[in-house]
Amino acid sequence: xxxxxxxxxxxxxxxxxxxxTEDIEKFKGYLACPYCxxxxxxxxxxxxxxxxxxxxxxxxxxHGAIRQVSQK
Length: 72
Ligand SMILES: [Zn+2]
Known about the structure:
Layout: E1 5-10, E2 16-20, H1 21-26, E3 41-43, H2 47-51, E4 57-62, E5 65-70
Antiparallel strand pairs: 1-2, 1-3, 4-5
């Protein structure tokens, strides 16, 4: 069981952010943009490409740039 992240993009302020899948389940229907509280966000579905890296690394998309975050 690894941590799975999903990327979302706000259709209001156009910013992208990353959420834990377990948080998405928890807040299903109540997800909102952390920047502007807009409820109109859409999933970017990048988790498939991230899974291969999950064993050693986590990539987060922050302000449009992918940053490598070490888990060690
Ligand atoms: Zn927003």
